[in-house]
Automatic annotation (TrEMBL):
Record-given protein name: Sorting nexin MVP1
InterPro entries registered for this protein in UniProt: PX_dom, PX_dom_sf, SNX8/Mvp1, SNX8/Mvp1_PX, Snx8_BAR_dom
GO biological process, alphabetically ordered: protein targeting to vacuole; retrograde transport, endosome to Golgi
Region feature Disordered, mapped onto this chain: 1-35, 201-250
Compartments reported by the entry: Cytoplasm; Membrane
GO terms, molecular function: phosphatidylinositol-3-phosphate binding
Keyword terms, alphabetized: Cytoplasm, Membrane, Protein transport, Transport
Pfam family, one: PX
Family stated for the protein in its record: Belongs to the sorting nexin family.
Topology in the lipid bilayer: Peripheral membrane protein
């Protein structure tokens, strides 16, 4: 037989040496699918991909970015002196603009005009070499010809910028050298913000994008600034003993606080999903057709709504609308567990179905989250009947971070944090270290279930072929075992096989068994594909979302609290030295030092408040994430229940067939 009529269904063995399943190192090395070394990883649109892209309103600027190939020597000299001094635009004002004003090269009006240009054209952060040099170019142009320090002139003269004044460079070099001699930060200053520290490497100077998945970075979330808080408030009585002794009343308050957080989040899928999605039959677009998705739900959305039934709603959205929604959530809620999107295209033939299911999980995870469920943009996404692109042009959308204008609750600082900080920070670090390994194991489980489901399909196909060939055999066996009732000769009658009909009847029963079992297998395969696998992938989505939160917290929660504290102490020391003797002629320097100290203390208060808000937000998300452990129970309870029903049906069919064949199929004449 030259070729087999059967599809053997050979599959790549994931435990073979080439698949890498038995490697000691974790398979999951990056949450970004494009960087994944294995085909078994999630191929989801993640925050790392979106946040490494320019914002929508800035893309027209980023596409026109021009690198400075001919950097003036004075610019490089100044940056070498201030590399570890300047980390924010406020530092740039202090070390560059204020000194130029003192030397009467610039006026305060010119300074404010240049700063407006910096913000309008997104020349921040100043730690990026190209931004630093372009701001210096604006300054040099303004000094060279007053009024010419604008962005258009800068781009026109980008490769032929004027030098900075030598007297200014000498002043900066002298002050930096004096600070180093007096034990100041100097070149050994510690930059606590890992995102900005990373910007000082050669990768940034080569104008490459930031790597969101660097290993070994210290997560700023793990830094406890309680001591700085008490120091700024003048509270020196806090001690470790106070943290160990928790008031019983506070204990009940903390327990209720945590219980309330967990009660708000119920991730179980159960039998019904609140939001349903299907592909619209008609495609839109003149040249390039795109698929629309019809979203239906009965949720009651809006302030005060409980999320229960609120009337049938239907909206039509396209994939780009989902991508915009995810980008908005990442900008506004960077410190929350945000689900990822499926990629725009899959590599297999079922990519449309996979993408639709991924979008379905994305929406249902959003509406289950207590914060996203109340987010006006999410509500508009699910309720506005018009085209979303048209609605966005008319709507006033606030992209600012959720913490804007908020102040941390004193109860969290004084009661909750002292009790939970040590355990929370330890658990956060432990989860951050092991989340990739957990994703690796769960991904392999998903693959095994997918392989099982494919084998079920192959088994159903084999059963159908079994029935087909068995029927062909029944039609032909009578030619070998003749059965002719019309024969009149007694000798011929001896050649007749009277039992072949009974045997063929038994074969018919066997065929019916395989037909019925094939249908049982198809039904079971469908259940696995639409229920079990979706629940497995739903939990995997949550794991990837937590991994992305860990990555964002490393890169976005950095602060300059320690650096500001050092600078305040340095300025206070200088202030004492200046005011210790005669102050005649030193009024300008005294006022400058006093104002710098005030500004830095105000900045510390703001950064401490932001740091506390980030810690509180991450703590809530971590506590809510604990509810996802029940997704593990849900999927395997469903799996075992399905296996039991499947085996029951097959066992019933087998018992009926066995009883029928034993009684009816002859074994002898």
């Amino acid at each position: 037989m030259s070729s087999s009529i059967f599809n053997t269904g050979e599959e790549e063995d994931p435990w073979s040496s080439t698949a890498g399943w038995n490697d000691d190192k974790p398979v999951v090395t990056s949450p970004i699918p494009s960087l994944s070394p294995t085909p078994y990883q999630s191929t989801y649109l993640t925050s790392s991909q979106l946040l490494n892209q320019p914002r929508a309103e800035q893309r027209h600027q980023s596409t026109n970015t021009v690198s400075i190939s001919n950097v003036p020597a004075s610019y490089e000299s100044l940056r070498s002196h201030l590399l570890n001094k300047i980390t924010t635009i406020n530092d740039f004002e202090y070390y560059v603009f204020d000194k130029l004003i003192d030397l009467q090269y610039l006026t305060s009006y010119q300074k404010s005009k240049i700063l407006d240009i910096v913000y309008d054209n997104n020349l921040v952060p100043v730690t990026l070499a190209q931004n630093f040099y372009q701001i210096l170019g604006l300054v040099a142009l303004e000094i060279d010809v007053p009024g010419s320090g604008d962005f258009v002139t800068l781009q026109f003269k980008l490769q032929n910028l004027p030098e900075l004044p030598q007297s200014f460079l000498k002043l900066v070099a002298k002050e930096v050298g004096d600070n180093d001699d007096n034990g100041g930060d100097g070149d050994s200053g510690v930059i606590n913000d890992p995102l900005r520290a990373m910007a000082n490497t050669s990768r940034t100077e080569d104008n490459e994008v930031d790597d969101w998945n660097q290993r070994g970075k210290v997560d700023p979330i793990l830094t406890d600034h309680s001591d700085s808080q008490h120091q700024m408030l003048g509270d020196e009585e806090d001690s470790s003993n106070d943290r160990d002794e928790i008031n019983p009343q506070n204990t009940s308050y903390i327990e209720k606080y945590i219980e309330d957080i967990r009660d708000e989040f119920k991730p179980l899928i159960l039998d019904e999903t609140p939001v349903k999605i299907r592909e619209s039959p008609e495609k839109e677009g003149l040249l390039f057709k795109h698929i629309n998705y019809t979203i239906t739900h009965n949720l009651a959305l809006g302030p005060g709504a409980s999320g229960l039934l609120g009337g049938h709603k239907k909206v039509v959205r396209r994939y780009s609308d989902f991508a915009w929604l995810l980008e908005y959530l990442l900008q506004k809620y960077p410190f929350r567990v945000i689900p990822g999107l499926p990629p725009k295209k899959f590599t297999d033939s079922q990519f449309l179905q996979r993408r639709r299911r991924g979008l379905h999980r994305f929406l249902n995870q959003l509406v289950k989250h207590p914060v996203f469920r109340q987010e006006p943009i999410v509500q508009s996404f699910l309720t506005v009947p018009s085209d979303l692109a048209t609605w966005k042009k008319q709507a006033k959308i606030d992209y600012s971070i959720e913490f804007k204008g908020q102040k941390i609750q004193t109860e969290f600082i004084n009661i909750i944090w002292p009790a939970i900080s040590e355990e929370f920070l330890r658990n956060w670090a432990l989860a951050e270290q092991n989340i990739r390994g957990l994703i690796e194991k769960w991904t392999k489980l998903v693959i095994l279930v997918e392989r099982h489901e494919k084998r079920q399909q192959q088994m159903s196909y084999d059963n159908q072929k079994f029935v087909e060939i068995l029927n062909q055999f029944r039609k032909l066996d009578t030619t070998v075992y003749p059965q002719d009732d019309n024969s009149s000769s007694s000798a011929t009658a001896m050649l007749q096989n009277n039992d072949v009909e009974a045997i063929n009847a038994g074969l018919t029963s066997i065929g019916e068994y395989y037909t019925k079992s094939s249908q049982v297998i198809v039904d079971d395969s469908y259940t696995i594909n639409t229920t079990i696998l979706e629940k497995l992938k739903n939990y995997m989505d949550y794991l990837y979302s937590l991994l992305e939160l860990f990555e964002r917290s490393k890169n976005l929660s950095g602060n300059q609290i320690d650096t500001l504290n050092k600078r305040i102490k340095e300025n206070e020391l200088n202030f004492k030295k200046v005011t210790a003797g005669p102050t005649n002629g030193k009024e300008v320097e005294i006022n400058k030092l006093r104002q710098s100290i005030i500004n830095d203390k105000q900045e510390i208060f703001q950064q401490l408040n932001r740091d506390w808000l980030i810690k509180q937000c991450c703590f809530k998300e971590y506590v809510m994430f604990q509810e996802t452990q029940y997704l593990v129970s849900e999927v395997w309870v469903e799996w075992c229940r399905g296996r039991h029903k499947f085996q029951e049906k097959l066992t019933g069919l087998s018992e009926n067939l066995s009883a029928e064949l034993i009684n009816d199929m002859p074994l002898s004449r």
